[in-house]
Automatic annotation (TrEMBL):
Gene3D superfamilies: 2.30.30.30, Nucleic acid-binding proteins
CDD domains linked: S1_eIF5A
Protein name, per record: Eukaryotic translation initiation factor 5A
UniProt source species: Rhododendron simsii
Lineage: Eukaryota, Viridiplantae, Streptophyta, Embryophyta, Tracheophyta
Keywords linked to the UniProt accession: Hypusine, Initiation factor, Protein biosynthesis
Length: 171
């Protein structure tokens, strides 16, 4: 045996995994999947041999020596881009852990960041206003009118973004 010391540098973070494996054939409509390293939502499901529609999953069986394949067409949950992938139905796909958390809006800074009140009374100041024009104007208008607003923040794979707004009344 050697008397040398071995030091291993950990490159993983101590938290939970950002994704989990799931068999491609079991992923369904409104489910999530990672395509090209991006967290995506599957909008529609068609179990047919042909790809029909805009956003879907289709499963087709090939010849006797092939494998059934799943054709995923999904939308990136953060930037709205359409992505596609074809995977044998018996193979595993990465599925992101997706969370939604509500925070009360406290302030909007001039540089486009929001200040949010967390459940434990601390503030969260690292999120930008959303890029969606409709949601952006609803947040700015409601805040300008002095309404109490609660924003929903979606998080997956180390990214976060404001995705919805609730008006809980005037301040």
């Amino acid at each position: 045996m050697s008397d040398e010391e071995h030091h291993f540098e950990s490159k993983a973070d101590a938290g939970a995994s950002k994704t989990f494996p799931q068999q491609a054939g079991t992923i369904r409509k409104n489910g999530y999947i990672v395509i090209k390293g991006r967290p995506c939502k599957i909008e529609k499901l068609f179990v047919v041999n042909l790809v029909v529609g805009v956003v879907e999953v289709s499963t087709s069986k090939t010849g006797k020596h092939g494998h059934a394949k799943c054709h995923f067409v999904a939308i990136d949950i953060f930037n709205g881009k359409k992505l596609e992938d074809i995977v044998p139905s018996s193979h595993n796909c990465d599925v992101p852990h997706v969370n939604r958390t509500d925070y009360q809006l406290i302030d909007i800074s001039e540089d486009g960041f929001v200040s949010l009140l967390t459940e434990n009374g601390n503030t969260k100041d690292d999120l930008r206003l959303p890029t969606d024009d409709s949601l952006l104007s609803q947040i700015k208008d409601g805040f300008g009118e002095g309404k109490d607003l609660v924003v929903s923040v979606m998080s997956a794979m180390g990214e976060e973004q404001i995705c919805a707004l609730k008006d809980i009344g005037p301040k």
